[in-house]
Design brief:
Blueprint: H1 11-16, E1 18-23, H2 30-35, E2 39-44, E3 49-53, H3 59-77, H4 81-84, H5 94-99, E4 100-101, E5 104-105, H6 114-127, H7 132-138, H8 143-151, H9 154-166
Antiparallel strand pairs: 1-2, 2-3, 4-5
Helix pairs in contact: 3-6, 7-8
């Protein structure tokens, strides 16, 4: 089994652990959308996390969108034992360092590496009891950069604040 977070796996490897379901999409889009199975649903079998897409006109385009959505959901919902091991110092992966320069983390949420960055950040937060300033020091950035990243993917920001609130910490706005 791969030691990387599933959000970071190559697409082929990720899909070997998934069930893909295709169906007809409803709504606007012409005859192709209504007659061909263009809607895609992907379930990551080890955790049961599901993502889907049906807004594009072709199955291939919807599959790409669904895979990206699945990766983002996995980044937020799946934790690996290695991410929780406090004896192993966290420095930041090569991917993290590629996008973090001079304390700023500059990556679009449409970038193919976005789910990897998100998984690393959520893993670090989980490991450091959702303390943004501690994680910021460890990953050579600022708390405001961490919050900015989390806000790019709403479910990540919601999870962050829920975890902080459950520990009696102040949620971020």
């Amino acid at each position: 089994m791969n030691e990387l977070h599933p959000a970071c796996w190559a697409e082929e490897e990720l899909l070997t652990q998934c069930r893909l379901t295709f169906s007809r999409a409803s709504g606007p889009g012409g005859q192709n959308r209504n007659k061909v199975e263009t809607s895609v649903q992907i379930e990551f079998l080890p955790s049961g996390v599901i993502a889907s897409a049906s807004e594009r006109r072709t199955q291939n385009e919807n599959r790409k969108v669904a895979v990206m959505r699945l990766r983002c959901k996995l980044a937020v919902d799946v934790r690996l034992a290695a991410h929780l091991d406090s004896s192993n110092p966290l420095i930041g992966s090569d991917t993290w360092r590629l996008y973090c320069r001079d304390g700023r983390v500059d990556i679009s949420d449409t970038n193919q590496d976005w789910p990897s960055i998100l998984a690393e950040l959520i893993g670090a937060l989980s490991r450091f009891d959702w303390n943004a300033s501690e994680v910021a020091r460890t990953l050579d950035t600022s708390s405001s950069q961490i919050v900015k990243l989390l806000k790019k993917y709403g479910p990540a920001f919601v999870r962050f604040n829920e975890e902080r609130k459950s520990r009696g910490q102040r949620p971020f706005a």
